[in-house]
Amino acid sequence: MHVAESHPVAPNRIRKPSIGFLLHALLINLELQDFWREGVKNSQTMEITNVTEYQAIAKEKLPKMVYDYYASGAEDQWTLAENRNAFSRILFRPRILIDVSKIDVSTSVLGFKISMPIMIAPTAMQKMAHPEGEYATARAASAAGTIMTLSSWATSSVEEVASTGPGIRFFQLYVYKDRNVVAQLVRRAERAGFKAIALTVDTPRLGRREADIKNRFTLPPFLTLKNFEGLDLGKMDKADDSGLASYVAGQIDRSLSWKDVKWLQTITSLPILVKGVLTAEDTRLALENGAAGIIVSNHGARQLDYVPATIMALEEVVKAAQGRVPVFLDGGVRRGTDVFKALALGASGIFIGRPVVFSLAAEGEAGVRKVLQMLHDEFELTMALSGCRTLKEINRNHIVTEWDAPHALPAAARL
Ligand code: FNR
Questions:
Q1: Burial zone of 52 (CB within 10 Å; 0-12 exposed, 13-18 middle, 19+ buried)
Q2: What is the pTM of this model?
């Protein structure tokens, strides 16, 4: 048998590195360390590039009780996740080769010209997020040329918010058992220059928010529900569960019904937006009872869990409204693409809730401004990339939803 001749293995000769080589390696090492250090520094002061990023910052900054109150939804929080997830099931059908060198995202709401169809939803107790609270939000909305809705349960009064300067503002109303309180408050909002009432109709009782129960949530004693200060209703007691749930049980009128929407029209000439509609049946009733507009809302998933995402309920409401009143949407809007999808399904505009309190907690007025600017820019970009130059050009054919049957494609798109 032929045995392969074995060659003697040459001993591994380790050559000494030259001084030059060592110096070079050292330099690279130093530069790498700088590069890494810079990287860590950058990640600490990292630029915010989208609205969602503010949530983690708010979580770090805020006391747990406050963060949980802002962030959480009702019970299993299924609807909370669904408000976001549903947007991701709607896809675009962009049109191309359309001159999009000029884009106009401005619009009108109830006759008021605003810079974009992106507005601020009422969120309660904003001074828990930042000392400037509702003032900061009002200034940011005004600077962005859009509408702020002030909550009944704000920690700044209607008069205080009005004193921050000019701006188009709506007032969100909770109807108290004591109708004198309601009548007074509506009159004050009118006098302070608020332009519409957003009547919240999904809260005869407070939804079961388990984090608030665990945390024994209550308004910190140094703050007041400012609109009710003089009426002895501005403080919230600590309770065995959620202090807010007890407050609502004590003060809010569970018997509220459509006749009260009529009653409201006898005490104010302001237009009434019914906030919290999710069905065609209630849309028709809202129209019959004199609503000037409808807000499709599930209260940021904080009331009844397992209602659909608002973006899923929108089209049903739009169809029932038959163009007689504008339909708006809130719930889970975090991207310009979300705004576009809502408009393609027939909304006249959208409102944002949590992004405002989270950005307020992170950076005060500058944070809210940035949120509005980012959504504006993303929305404008979405329009450009979809081939739309004005809001009127956005239509149902620019999107496809999972509930569209193949035959529902526009005639021009069928083979
Ligand atoms: C709210 N929301 C609310 N709605 C209302 O009519 N009156 C109120 O006082 C409040 N307060 C409030 C506080 C907080 C912390 C949140 C998160 C929400 C509901 C709000 O107006 C809006 O419907 C949702 O916030 C919209 O959903 P997103 O944008 O938060 O997902």
A1: middle
A2: 0.90
